[in-house]
Design a protein that fits this description.
Elements lengths: L3 E6 L4 E8 L16 E8 L5
Antiparallel strand pairs: 1-2, 2-3
């Protein structure tokens, strides 16, 4: 199974990530073809205290 993820730091506190799980659409005979492909977007923010 191939997973791909890209992360970009927009500024000191904001990070953007994009990824695809199961890029090649791998299936398994035991579990069936229901594994599927997943794409996601993620934003994270770092907050400093003090």
């Amino acid at each position: 199974m191939i997973n791909w993820r890209t992360t970009v730091q927009i500024n000191k506190s904001l990070i953007f990530s994009f990824g695809i799980n199961n890029l090649a659409n791998y299936t398994n005979k035991d579990f069936g073809p229901f594994i599927g492909r997943v794409a996601y977007l993620e934003f994270s923010n770092k907050i400093k205290r003090g």
